[in-house]
Amino acid sequence: MKRLMMTLAAASLLAGCHTIHFDQEQPVASNKAQSHAQWHHNMALSLVEVSNPVDLDRNCGDNGWETVKTETTFINGLPGAVIPYLGLLWSPKTATVQCQDQQVQ
Q: Which secondary structure element, helix H or strand E, spans residue 6, and what is its range?
């Protein structure tokens, strides 16, 4: 039991969360824009993408997108920390799309 706890502690310390932002350089009318978050799945050391790409048109429609953020959160990394070597096979991320409030002209 002690060995398992040490392994989980080491895995949680070595596991890193990361975030990548993609931003438009257009002004935003207000901060009331809606956002959509979904999990995105990769396999085999993140070399194989098994989820469909994030559809910006479906998420934001005619308003367009302001920011797209992909991140590995603690919740995304938890299955790989609990099940040994799962992180090498499956690596989920959270993709969040922030839409513009209205069409910027």
A: helix 2-14
Relative to beta strand 48-49, strand 65-72 is unpaired
Pairs from 77-82 (Cβ < 8 Å, separation ≥ 24): 77/15, 77/17, 80/11, 80/15, 81/8, 81/11, 81/12, 81/15, 82/8
Identify the pLDDT of residue 96. 92
Residue with tokens 């992909």: 70
Q: Which domain holds residue 82?
A: 2-99
In a domain, 9, yes or no: yes
| 104 in any annotated domain | no
- In the chain, how many domains are there? 1
Please check whether residue 95 lies inside any domain of the structure.
Answer: yes
Q: What is the pTM assigned to this prediction?
A: 0.67
